[in-house]
Structure formats: C-alpha cells, structure tokens
Amino acid sequence: MTSIVLGQGRDGSDTCIDLPELLATRLLVQGNSGSGKSHLLRRLLEQTATLVQQVMIDPEGDFVTLADHYGHLVIDVEDQSEASLRAAGERVRAHRASVVLNLEQVEAEMQLRAAGAFLNGMFDAPRAHWYPVLVVVDEAQLFAPVAGGDTSDEARRLSLGAMTNLMCRGRKRGLAGVIATQRLAKLAKNVAAEASNFLMGRTFLDIDMARAADLLGMERRAAESFRDLARGQFMALGPALSRRPKLVTIGPVTTASHATGPVLVPLEPVSAEDLRDIILEPVQEFTPRPRRETRPPPPDLLAQLDAYGAEREAEEPAPVAAAVEADPDQLWSLVADVVAGEGSDYKPLATLYQDFQLRARIQGLSRNVLELGPFHRMLATIRAGLDRERSESEDWKQAQAIAATLPEDVQGVFLLLARTALDGEACPGDEALARAYGTHSLGRARRQLNYLEEREVIVLQDTPLGRRVAIVGRGWQTA
C-alpha cells in the first residue's frame, strides 16, 4: 500500500491517506475561508509530488510556488485561446507533465472557459495516455456552481460539464478529482456527490454544517462541533482515510504561497493636518480628447468590384460575344490558392468561398463562376492531396459519390481517408484528421472515425502497428 502522512490524529498518531484508494474514490474538502483548505491541498500535493502526476486548477495563483521545488509547469492562461488550452490538456496527459493552471490574471468568464477547455482536453486524451493523474481544483464552487452568476450560460455549461466529467466519469480515464470549496451549498450536488472521501473543516452556517454532518454520517446535534475546529483541523472520513469520522490536524508544508495573510503593523503617529494635505492633494485633471467622428464602414470589396465593372460597361459598351466557360484548370488553381492560405484549415466554409469569389473577380471571372457545392467538393479533393488529373478519374468520382451521402462537415475527413486508402498509404494521424475536420481538438477528430464506421462507409481496425482503414464498397485499404 502506498500511503502518505496527511497529519496527526487526536492522540498524536499519524493519519495517513491511501494514495491508490484516493485515485479510485476522489476527495472533497470543505471549510470556510481561513479554515486551512489551501494548506491541506498544499500538504497533499507536496507529499504526492514524486508519486503521481498532478494537475492543479488554481484560480488565485496560490500554488505556482510548487514549480520552484517540484518542477511543475506553470501555464498562465491570459494569452492562451480555448483551442490551445484544450490541446495543452491532451499533451499534458501524453507527456505526463505535472501542471499548475494559473487563472489569477483573467476575469471570471475566462476562468470558467479556460478550466473547462483544459479539463475537456485531458478527458478526451487517447486511451494509451490514461495514466493516473491527481486533478486538484481549488474554489470548486466557481467552476461547478449551483446557479448562474455574472458569467454567461455558455461558459458556465462548459465548466460545469468538464467538472462533472472529472468527478463522474474520470475514474476510468485515470483522472482522480480532489475538489475544495468554501461552501457545500454553492457547489453543484452532482459534482460533490461523486466523492467518497471527505475532509470537513471549520464551518459556521447551519445549512453547511448540516450537509457536512450528513456526508460524514454524523448526527445533526453533533454538527455544531464543526464550529469548534481550529485552523488546519479537519474531520476525515472515507475508504482512503478512515472508516469512521476522525479528527486530523494537517502537518507542515515546505512551500508557501506568494499571497500572505494580513499582518498587524503598528500605526505611525501622523497629525490629522498632515494627513489632510496628503489625502486631499489636488489631482491634475486632463482635458478629455475630442471624440473621433464615426465613419461609416467601407463597402464590401466584392460589391466595389461589381460596381466598377458596371461603370466600365456603361462607359464602354462591350461587343456582344458568346459566353465563355471558365477554364477548369484556372478554377482548380484558384481553389488551390484558397487552400494554401494561412489558417485555411480552420476557417468556415463561407469565409473560404468568399475568398474564392474575390480571387475570381480579380481575374475577371464572374463571382458565381463556381457554386458552393462544387467548390466544397473541389476544396476537399485538393485538401485530400489529389492533383487535377487524378481528380477526374473514375475511382475518385466514386469516392465523391460516397462522400455526397455524408454530412458536409465529415466529407473532408472521408475523402482524406479514401485518398490514402486508394494510394495504399498509412492512415492519417490525429492532427491530419483534425485539419480535415476543421478543429483543433484531436479527440473530436478521432470521434469522426467511429461516426464514419457507424455510417458503414469505412471499416476501422486498430492493430499493434497502428490504425488501418478500409473503404466499404471499394476495397481500398490504408497501409
């Protein structure tokens, strides 16, 4: 049994916590502000730092000092997008990195979005990376609230869903949730109910004392004992701690938070007149700059080009001539230029189509020279890696016919698989599938393989040498 010493019991004996049991059964810590929750979490993290991978969701920046002593990676989220944080969550599991997600510098809305994206990335990691991880969430009531607050419903749903996955479905994926909250009444019940181990600290409100007593199996009249607990004292119960409620005093820690509590400092004697001159010193007021005159937005560039063409036709009437069809090679080249544009893999189809229309108008073609449907098929074909000549082959037309039966968002994924299978190449990796699907989430891209198999257009097989895909009806297979 791998156990660590959490603190001392009432009789001075060591109170240990069984780490493997904790990883399987999760932990809930509750206590009012000043009860010692952060000290308890720091003790737990320090004692297990060399035994298990750790991820700390830190809304106040209290735990960044772990990096100096134990080598944790500190991720400051202020300059990170949701997509990059989700990808970081997957990579943290792949590389088994202990991380402190520092949310101190961002507002509440971004805290929820960042924590939700990062935890979802960890949850969606491939099965090969399901190593045990101790996921500690301080101030859990912020990320799994009972009711909405000043944040948007979308951000709250994202964070609450991630916390629910962590506590309800994370065990099979190796995610062991340790959540700490000031008030149980503010924490979503479906998140708190999944914990089997409890450490209850000092609490004064009747509703919180009653709920803590219910969780510990104590009588209601014994609930008032939570008011008498000293700072750093907790009632422990659970398969990883004790079979009966047990008082534990948390042991010392090595590291300390950057933020220290208030310290009494003697007041320096200063006369009221001197204070008046200092506090009421005139402030130079600057004349505000005149507001800029609002200008109407510039007209659409495509509309400008159409207007320019209409003016030229009015000034110089063109001779009547038969309509000339656009050169297929020219259209292929225009779509290839759109695909080669920076970030085109993740742009919406409407944006890419507008880019194509602009390029067509610049070359003198009609903006409707290629309809949206044929444009999408040509775009997916180029992304799949085919050249102009092979795109006219009978085999590829049959692959496009199969793709036409699928939703538009997965057609690119299927055509990429069809091309690699037709050429007998290795199955595309997760990043290539994500680009074809237009997402930064590798887990979401992998799920499209299962969807295509359910639609009976591919056969998916995982082998010791990697993933293999066969196209139903055509018999093409990846290497």
Automatic annotation (TrEMBL):
- Record field: transmembrane: none
Q: Which InterPro entries match?
A: ATPase_Atu1862_pred, HerA-like, HerA_central, P-loop_NTPase
Domain Helicase HerA central intervals: 10-72
Please name the Pfam families in this protein's record.
DUF87 (PF01935)
Q: What name does this protein carry? A: DUF87 domain-containing protein
